[in-house]
Amino acid sequence: MTTTLPALSALAQEAQPAVGEATGTASLAWLLFALPAAGALVLFLTGRRSDRWGHWLGLLTVVASFVIGLLIFLETVGLAPGERTRELALYSWIGSGSLNVDFGLRLDPLSLTFVLLITGVGSLIHLYSVGYMSHDPGRRRFFAQLNLFVAAMLVLVLANNFVLLYLGWEGVGLASYLLIGFYQDRPAAATAAKKAFLMNRVGDVGLALAIFLLWLELGTTQYNEVFGRIGEVPSGTVLAVTLLLLLGACGKSGQFPLQSWLPDAMEGPTPVSALIHAATMVTAGVYLIARTNPIYDLTETGRLVVALIGVVTLLIGAIIGCAYDDIKKVLAYSTVSQIGYMILAVGLGPAGYALGIFHLLTHGFFKAGLFLGAGSVMHAMNDDVDMRRFGGLWRKMPVTFVTFGLGYLALIGFPFLSGYFSKDAIIEAAFAQEGWQGWVFGGAAALAAGLTAFYMTRLMFMTFFGERRWEKVPAHNGEAYHPHESPATMTVPMIVLAFGSVGAGAALYPVLPEWLAPTVGELRELEGGALPHAVVPWLVVGLSALGVLAGYLFVGRRPVPVERPERVSLPVRAARADLYANAINESVVERPGTWLTRILVYFDNRGVDGAVNGIAAGLGGSSGRLRRLQTGFVRSYALSMLGGSVLIVAAMLAVRFA
Amino acid sequence: MNVLSAAGPIVPDSGGNVLLIVLLLLPLVGSLVMYPLRGNVALAKGVAMAVALLELVLVVLAWVGYDTAAAADGTRFQLEFSASWIPAFGTHIAFGVDGIALVMIALTAFLVPILMLFAWAEKLPEGRTASGYFGLLLATQAMLVGVFAATDVFLFYVFFEAMLIPMYFLIGRFGGPNRQYAAVKFFLYSLLGGLIMLASLIGLFVVSGERLGQGTFTWAELQTMAATVPTSTQIWLFLGFFVAFAIKAPLFPFHTWLPDAGAEAPIVGAVLLVGVLDKVATFGFLRYCLPLFPAASQALAPLVLTLAVVGIIYAALLAVGQTDMSRFVSYTSIAHFGFIALGIFAFSSQAFAGATLYMVNHGLSTGMLFLMVGMLITRGGSRKIADYGGVAKLAPLLAGCLLVAGMSSLALPGTNSFVSEFLVLVGSFPNAPVFTIVATVGIIFAALYVLWFYQRTMQGPVRGDAVTAALERAGAGGPGAMTDPGIAAKRAGTGFADLGRREIAVVTPLIVAIVVLGFFPAPLLDVINPSVTATMQEVGLADPVPVGGTAR
Amino acid sequence: MSPTNYLLLSALLFSIGAVGVLVRRNAVVVFMCIELMLNAVNLTLVTFSRINGTLDGQVMAFFVMVVAAAEVVVGLAIITSIFRTRQSSSVDDANLLKY
After folding, report:
1. Which end of chain A is more exposed for a tag (fewer CB within 10 A), N or C?
2. What pTM, to 2 d.p., does this model score?
């Protein structure tokens, strides 16, 4: 650390690891994002000339990034835990007066974990996309945008200051906008893309204001200086900063009340949903809170709000997930719900930061795998997403079925698969909270686990088991369905991710908290609370089993109608309507906004411009009246001259003699 | 005399460096040469382009000659020249640049050749020739150099009014169907503001006569006496300048001439008008209002900040509601001017630097936005947004460039505008937190209007009267044709064509500037920062956030 | 010598001329009334010249006469030309130059 300040907050000061200079392999860290960015640039600039080989270039740059990331990771593992935080200053980006923002990178356990996740899962999904997008004329553009995303996401996690984080933050927003709107001649895709960008911008305002506040108080945006001196900031400001950061996190991660863009984002190609809207970008909010843990450590209220947002969101996601028939939207709401778990975890403070990241990683594996599986199903089913038209697909696409099934088991927390370790740990930590918080957080999280089991079981039965409903109806594009297994470029990534879904939890569980400790602090296991640790796993597994059973009873045992039944109970109707989130957005924001715009346009034309033109017209009109005095009669002119002269003479006389 | 030696202040009337005079006269002579060349349009265009490029080279020389270290040491102006003009009124032909003026002159010199290239094959109204068109462009450039380089307040005023003349003819002779109305409105509105400023100018002269014993228009002398003028006097003088600049900028509620002028002006005229000419006002705030009336500026800052922030939200909402592409771009500019004004009246070196950088970046991004709109109009022949749709499918390159311009307009990080917008907001926050929060909310609206415009014109299925008409003209089939219009357009090679080579050459330097300045704004900031610091000292305020922040 | 009588005469002549200009329609008569006013002024100028013993007033009077002569030349030409085209010498008929 460069500053030598008196430690006002011993806790924050102590928690900050010493920052070393990045040397060796780590000095190549800039290549991590520069390579994908260069790939994107080449693909954008060469245009159609690179149509034939562009996708391989895109894949290659991300794989190269992964290799570099792995090398840096191995190098870092070799260091002592206290020396694992290193920085690499590239150049001074924005400087004016007392403000100086570096284009600098921070290589620490947290950022390296994300680098491996992004480039690793990114490589797999790039590979998958080579097959998935093989028939699409826009494949080169797709890879260019996907590379742009990887580069921006890497900048986001590697930044060593808030402004550079913001660059990556909005950069992934742009990539997400481009990719959601990839099929840009579809109005729905264009609208979804715009919606995603706008709701993200709402969050970005929060992030930006948090940066302004921090700079005002501390005169810096550099992580290590901010975290080192955050104790000097008044507690009210700290609370404001945490809430503003949370707003940013809500926008990016699709958390309540900004959750409704994420399901719409499924308009994008499926690999995009897997990479951006499941595994990486939408977890940026969790990253942000984990990264700024020294700030959240100082405010209990701030953490409580975070946890509440997480709880509300995980329930919303799980409830709505039960009602949809669109396979991607079910997975999307599942993502909303799972990120809710992560937010809840990081909201628990030192007891949960590492758990949030842990669940983020396992979720990255199994949810990406599930999305790729869904994409594989869609690929086989003429790009249809309506599960009511699927059924009995497990024979037709065995690899997809097995990998998807493993992801499913991991997600519902089947014992000793990935999700079991990570989700259970969060629920345990939630129950370990004192007082009402333990019951509310833990209870909601456990309940949502049961719901998760239900909607995922429903999805499994509707897609892979039961009657082959696709034999009876034509596809949406009018052709008959010919389900088939996907090519190897698609199945290989699914298989790899399935291994992750199975083993990542068990493999990471013992090592991850310790590895992350230099960045997010030691994992503090709480004792006591609402429910003891020993009880919780039984409760969760029991609830999940109930969910699976309910899924079997409601969907697996009965025939599924191809047409969606419309006479359904009130809760189902509410869930189908996204719990009225879009309706609220529309009636509170969109429609008044439209009216306001119209009124303002009228006001500007008639009011403001009317006043300007009115003054001009008034001058013109009065001069038109005055013109009438010019009658053309010489004698009247003569009279007015005489009158004028008399007046002047009279005035002179009056002045002289008065 | 070494033209590139920029060194320190000079005595009045002693002559000095002639580079700025050359920069002023070169385009002026170029525009006069256009008249005898009117018979030979090709030659005229070539000569005009040569003049513009030579000007650019000279500006690069001036840039190289500008000594940032000397500026940081307190040299207020460089490349100075001074000669007596009207001794009775104490006016001088005095030129000199600080970092702020230099970047604006550089922006002008950068844009003009691009604009000429864009206008190279433009279809002009009946009976007009390209020589007149290019001549007016050069004349505008000359006036702009004059207005930015003047260090004599009276000389500034002369150029401030004189630049209306070429712009009036540019709009009135080469503009759209309603050009007469727009040109007259623009001219009268600006003139009104200018005359109010003239009254203030005379007042300033009188006050300087009282304070200094002899009336003067020299900026440096007026600045030294500024602190001693009573606040009540300052306020009246300030208001005269302010009204002129508020109209020119334009700030809400003086903005209504801009959509008309921006829409009716030819595209290149609109770019110069919105991109550079309007910046004279914000430049004027920084160079004249703040240093000459420091007490009044601070007293009236809440008023200006209110207008600025209202303008940001109001104009953004209006931009959403526009049906005409050029008016749309004009309204986005009004919103951006709000950010610039916010930065200027927030009194911190970050906000000042951000506002100055914003002037340059807005010229680039809005310039490009106007040019992209112009390229659409060239193809479709209509300014209405509803006449276009799904263009991305027919002309992906055009759509991509429009998106780049739009992203720069909404200040996406990684584009030039982000740096300036961030500096403005972060710098304004300490002194004007409430205004800054509202302005920050304005960035949501910026995203809304850009993306909504992009969606309506570029995304979705191919539609819109202008697009289908263009496709039909090319025989590629409109509605009801058997082939997919996109494929048919490609087959025919005409219709709604993608960018051609000349158009690519037009947008390339702009895109490069947008991206490079987004990641590496240091070359501009290094030039701007010393002058900004000087302005802070002239206002007499310290930076609100010291090194280490306010918490310490 | 007292200037009173001269000035009274001059004022009388001026008033007659002024009233004539205002009430008469015939252009020639209006013209003659103008001459009357000019001569009334001349009388005043000469009177004061005599009283003050300087030649300034007389010089002025000559200037007035010259101007009057020039005016008559141009004016009569215009009146004649109007009479030829419109068959009227009334000043009220020549009122096209209005608004």
Report:
1. C
2. 0.89
